[in-house]
Amino acid sequence: QVQLQESGPGLVKPSETLSLTCSVSGVSITRDYWNWIRQPPGKGLEWIGSVYGSVYHSGSNQYSPSMKSRVTILRDASKNQVSLNLKFVTAADTGVYYCARDKGTGRGWFDTWGQGTLVTVSS
Amino acid sequence: QSAPTQPASVSGSPGQSITIPCSGTSNDIGSYNYVSWFQQHPGKAPKLMIFDVNNRPSGVSNRFSGSKSGNTASLTISGLQAEDEADYFCTSYTSINTLVFGGGTKLTVL
């Protein structure tokens, strides 16, 4: 059974960097695409970006154009984890952050999600 | 890259059918058969209901179906049940190799 678990600080100060980790169990991350998706309170879903898990395709990322300048998504095959770094955060970055597996080779076939972690940006 | 448009809300009575449209552009829905639909209950993670326009993952009721015409994809739920009350989101692959979510639709079962 594939399971995803997000972890990281629940509170981040404005202008600092938000860092989250997605720990994956039940499958190797070297398969499939791994995504970060967020949801501001009371609002809709926003795709942040993805990384391809294969170790033979280093740097295979895609990012939302609106966040590309601030986002880095990496994968660590040795730990079976995917990470998200979002720089220069503001209150608008507050929300629940989900990691999700895309079995559709980047087509948005998000079949498995983590439970999500709430991140609040505030001083 | 703009988000596909969904109605903010739809409603229906138990047993009825409803359709939720997701209107995109020729840069996303219109050019690719890579549309997925997700159901989200309050406080829960989204659940994949439809992928690649009209395919159901194992375990999803056949009351849920998807279709596409031009730049608009649609999710149809037949035989509405109380448990279908939730938020529904579409997503599409885009011409710049990214993914984009629709704004979401709140389904109320009357």
Q: How many E-type strands of chain A?
A: 11
Q: From N to C, what is the helix and strand string of chain B?
A: EEEEEEEEE
Low-pLDDT stretches of chain A are none
| Terminal residue distance of chain A | 39 Å
Spell out the helices and strands of chain A N to C.
EEEEEEEEEEE
Kindly report the oligomeric state of this protein. heterodimer
Structural class of chain B: mainly beta
Radius of gyration of chain A: 14 Å
What is the count of helical runs of chain B?
0
Q: Biggest protein-protein interface?
A: A-B, 25 and 29 residues
- Report the uncertain regions of chain B: none
> How far apart lie the N and C ends of chain B?
35 Å
Tell the overall outline of chain A: globular
Biggest sheet details of chain A: 7 strands, mixed
What number is the mean pLDDT of chain B?
Answer: 97
What does the model show?
The complex is a heterodimer of chains A (123) and B (110). Chain A has 123 residues and is mostly beta strands. Chain A contains no helices and eleven strands. In chain A, the strands form two sheets. In chain A, strands 2, 4, 5, 6, 9, 10 and 11 form a seven-stranded mixed beta sheet that branches. Chain A has a four-stranded antiparallel beta sheet with strand order 1-3-8-7, with no helix packed on it. In chain A, a hairpin with a 7-residue loop joins strand 9 and strand 10. The termini of chain A are far apart. The relative contact order of chain A is 0.32. The model of chain A has no long low-confidence stretch (mean pLDDT 94). The mean pLDDT of chain B is 97. At the A-B interface, strand 5 and strand 10 of A face strand 3, strand 7 and strand 8 of B.
